[in-house]
Amino acid sequence: MADRRDRYFDTLRAVAIVRVVAYHAFPYAWLELIFPSMGVMFALGGSLMVKSLDRNAGQAVRHRIRRLLPALWVMALILVPLMIHRGWPDRPSWPHLLLWLVPVADPPASDFGYSAAGVLWYLVTYLWLVLLSPVLLFLYRRARLATVLLPLAGLAVLVAHPMGGTVVQNVFAYASCWVLGMAHREGDLARLHPPLVLGLAAACVGGSLGWAFAHQDGNGVDLTGRPLAYAIYSIGFVLALLRWSPRLAAAPGFVSMVNNRAVTIYLWHNVAITLAVALFDPLKLWRIPGQIAEDAADFGLALAMLTVAVLALGWVEDLAARRRPRLSPFVRSAPAVSAPVVALSTS
To answer: Is residue 269 included in any domain, yes or no?
Structure first.
């Protein structure tokens, strides 16, 4: 029998992934601001880890890793030989290429493969947070507020005194959202009074935007280059989105499709966008009258190629989830499940 699903979480994940694809196709700063996808996805991951950790911590970690890595291995089987064939002047030694199998750091890539490898920081960060989850949950249950704030303190130190590389910085940047996901699953967010949550969320979002506005550079009000401000901004959204978890009896087929192929879409969307840009001149899309129509045609081409990737490679996610592999990402929805009753309290 299929696992019962939280349709609200499925919907949030689908919105987050669609926003990521849109931002990489149209890199306007406001797209990052309307919905901080990464913070939301890490919060969902932290929430979903808690119940599994309580049953069997080791098995929970192995299960998450198993769901995450096979799609990356398929990308490695395709991309690494292509990068070598195309010429890779500064190709690293074979031990470094093993990061494509176990991405505890960003897998190496040539200039040719950067469009694919450039998004892998998310998988690296997710893997580390999964590995750290037993410790984070242990700490959270003993010092709730301190465990939420400690990663922000670490991030502030790294921003002021850069060290440790981007992997450590990314883990610190999103660990607070991950822990807030745990707080949601524990029912602690639901016990907070709504005015307090709204006030905290508004302070996080407004404070981050105010700081970015006061420190504008050539990119204007852009939080993506300001890790601490963006982490706090994301926390504001996570607090509001997870404090109230509405019951959704069903979700559109598109939402289920995105969730069934989430890793494949994430891994290959930037490749599809890059290929669409490369094909713009050969296909003479510039003949299309109007900039908006040109952009729509280019984006449509990217979506078409992403669809091909999902149909051709998405079945790997079925195998990773120990489901019967299917070419179609549209499957019959599993029964919906609401968030825990305590998480729906409005007191």
So the answer is: yes
Pair of tokens at residue 144: 């709730």
Q: Give the chain's domain count.
A: 1
Q: Name residues whose C-beta falls within 8 Å of residue 199's C-beta, 6 or more positions apart in sequence.
A: none
* Single-letter amino acid code for the residue at 99: L
The structure tokens listed for 285 are 């899309």
User: Domain range for residue 130?
Assistant: 7-344
Question: What residues contact residue 94 under an 8 Å CB cut-off, 6+ apart?
Answer: none
Q: How confident is the model at residue 289 (pLDDT cuts 50, 70, 90)?
A: confident
For 83-113, the pLDDT digits (tens) are 999 999 889 988 999 999 999 999 999 999 9
Domain annotation covers residue 1: no
327 Cβ contact list (under 8 Å, min separation 6): 311, 314, 315
CB 44 within 8 A of CB 12: yes
Q: How far is CA 212 from CA 75, 105, 159, 236, in A?
A: 37, 29, 15, 15
Report the C-alpha dihedral over residues 99, 100, 105, 106, rounded to 10 degrees: 130
Could you tell me the CA-to-CA distances from 158 to 21, 153, 242, 248, 290 in Å, in that order?
29, 9, 28, 40, 45
Give the tens place of pLDDT for each residue, 215-272. Answer: 777 666 678 788 999 999 999 999 999 998 787 766 678 999 999 999 999 999 999 9
Residue 289, amino acid: P
Per-residue pLDDT tens for 165-187? 799 999 999 999 999 999 999 99
Residue 127 belongs to a domain: yes
Report yes or no on 160 lying in a domain: yes
Global confidence as pTM? 0.91
- Sign of torsion over alpha carbons 121, 124, 129, 135: negative
Dihedral class, residue 175 (left if φ above 0, else alpha if ψ from -120 to 50, else beta) = alpha
Q: Rounded mean pLDDT of the chain?
A: 89
